[in-house]
Amino acid sequence: MMQTTTDTIKIMTFNTWLGGEAVHDGVNKIARAVELSGADIVGFQETPDPGKAVAEKLGWHYYQNQEGRANCSVISKYPIIEAVHVDGMSAVLTHIQLPSGQVILVADAHLYYDPYGPYWALFDHKPVDEIVAMEQEARGRELALVLRDLAPHLASDMPLFLMGDFNAPSHLDWGDDTKSLHDGYVVRWPVSAMAEEAGLLDSYRIVHPDPAAMPGLTWSTVHTPEHPWGDNPFEPQDRIDFIYYHGSRVTAVNSEVFVVGEPKGFGSHEDNEWPSDHAAVVSTFQIATA
Q1: Mean pLDDT over residues 244-254, rounded?
Q2: Which of 39, 89, 94, 192 has its Cβ near the most Cβ atoms within 10 Å?
Q3: Cis omega before residue 48 (within 30°)?
Q4: Which of 243, 240, 245 is nearest to 189 (CA)?
Q5: 174, 187 Cβ separation under 8 angstroms
Q6: Residue 60, in any domain of the structure
Q7: d(C-alpha 246, C-alpha 17), whole Å
Q8: Concatenated DSSP letters for 166-186?
């Protein structure tokens, strides 16, 4: 009988807020945050992309799109043996070989930020069907491009991970049990619904299934209710950064929102140890070998 072994990996998704440019010594702070997280594989989002610079500081492998079409990169302790970008989309797909020899697919995406659905709900009080239609057009169209390229891998049992800044909440967080937090809104947000329908599992919500007890907010570390974005009357706090996974051999064993230090609000943020306006998400997985 063949003995089954297990790889344990820790994956981090990290919007770097203009590549660390919003704080002093940002690239070094990004590298330090990666080290403190204990991550093995990290997906970065937001231009200018710091992937190459951070990977070289850490002595890691990296794939950073070279054609100017994406503001995403993946850095990894383990070899990246194949990588491509998604045409027409800020997203990259990488194949990474783990120490056991098995290969996993890690995709990283950054969906467009505007218009932002929670503003339509909480500021403009638009009807749900109008919000859903907008989301489908603004970000659902983008995610469809990513899922198109992932489809052959989703049809197999290859361990697969899709992470990124999706700039949209999850339908798992805007249900009947949390509608009091969202002015009575219950929204099946299209992007998270599409991911679920494609067979992807939300690692944070698998580990923490109660959104009221564990909201997992990632937006925002500096645009707090008291320090809103632009002219907003306040800043809605939400979970918009995700690590999804697929494959019968993959188990999510832990997931956490990750921030270093205690970031000060926007306007007093330049000396923050944490270089981003998003919290990161770090999820730990066990992957049985085939």
Answers
A1: 98
A2: 192
A3: yes
A4: 240
A5: yes
A6: yes
A7: 28
A8: -SS--TTTSSGGGGGGTTT--
CATH code at 103? Answer: 3.60.10.10
- What pLDDT digit, counting tens, does each position of 212-243 carry? 999 999 999 999 998 999 999 999 999 999 99
Edge-to-edge strand list for the sheet holding 41-45: 61-64, 72-76, 41-45, 6-15, 280-288, 250-258
Contact predicate 253/265, CB 8 Å: no
Is 149 within the bounds of a domain? Answer: no
How far is it, in rounded angstroms, from Cα 6 to Cα 290? 9
Would you say residue 140 lies in a domain?
A: no
Terminal-residue alpha carbon distance, the chain: 13
Q: Please give the Cα distance from 259 to 264 (Å, whole number).
A: 12
Check residue 19 and report its DSSP letter: G
Q: How many CA atoms lie within 13 A of 144 on its CB side?
A: 8
* Domain membership flag for residue 135: no
Secondary structure E strands in the chain? 6-15, 41-45, 61-64, 72-76, 80-85, 91-97, 103-110, 160-165, 201-202, 241-246, 250-258, 280-288
The pLDDT tens digits for 93-144 are 999 999 999 999 999 999 999 999 999 999 999 999 999 999 999 999 999 9
Residue 2: per-residue pLDDT: 52
Burial of 184 (0-12, 13-18, 19+ CB in 10 A): exposed
Query: How many folded domains does the chain comprise?
Result: 1
Could you give the C-alpha distances from 288 to 98, 207, 247, in angstroms and in order?
12, 18, 10
> pTM here?
0.97
Domain range for residue 86? 6-108+160-167+201-288
